[in-house]
Amino acid sequence: MYQIQHETEEVLCNPREDDNLGSMVCYHRRYDLGDKNPYLPGHYKPNSGDFWGWTDMGKYLDKVHDLAVCLPVYMYEHGGIAVSTKPFSCRWDSGRIGFIFVSKEKLRKEYGVKRITASLVSKAKCVLIAEVELYNQYLNQ
Questions:
Q1: Helix segments in the chain, DSSP class H
Q2: For strand 81-84 and strand 23-26, is the pairing parallel, antiparallel, or unpaired?
Q3: Whole-angstrom distance between the N-terminal and C-terminal Cα of the chain?
Q4: Given CB 3.0 to 4.6 Å as the disulfide criterion, which of 32, 63, 97, 114 pairs with 75?
Q5: pTM of the prediction?
Q6: Which helix (H) or strand (E) holds 37?
Q7: Residues 6+ apart with CB under 8 A from 140
Q8: Which residues contact 109 (CB under 8 A, 6 or more apart)?
Q9: What kind and span of H or E run contains 81?
Q10: pLDDT tens, position by position, 61-75
Q11: Packing angle, helices 104-111 and 118-139, rounded to 10
C-alpha cells in the first residue's frame, strides 16, 4: 500500500523588494545583492572604485542622504552566502560588502516625528539589523 503526502515548500520573496525602512547598497563582483536603486533621484550608484575605502563611501552616503543610521553589511561565502551587520570571524571567506542605512527624512516620516531622539535611533538600528537578518534567511532558503 502506498501513501501519498503533499507537502508545500514556502518560498520567500526577496524582502529587499518590499517597503523597508533601510536602504541596502552592496558591492560584490559575483553577486547582485542589496536594493536595486537605494539612491535619491539624480544620484547614481557609485562604483566601489570611486572611493578610497568604506569610510569615504560612508561620508558620500551621509552627504547625499543626510543619514540617521548607517550600519555596515558583511558577507561570508563558503558553500552558501550569509550576510550580517557584524563581521564574520573568517578573514579568508568573508568581508564587508556595503551598507544599510536610513535617512533622517525617512525616519521622521516613517515614525511621524519632528525630532530624532537617541531612543528612535536605537529602534531604527534594531529594525535595520532585523532587515539584514531577514535578507540572510531569504538568501539561504
A1: 54-65, 104-111, 118-139
A2: unpaired
A3: 34
A4: 97
A5: 0.85
A6: none
A7: 80, 81, 82
A8: none
A9: strand 81-84
A10: 898 889 999 999 999
A11: 100
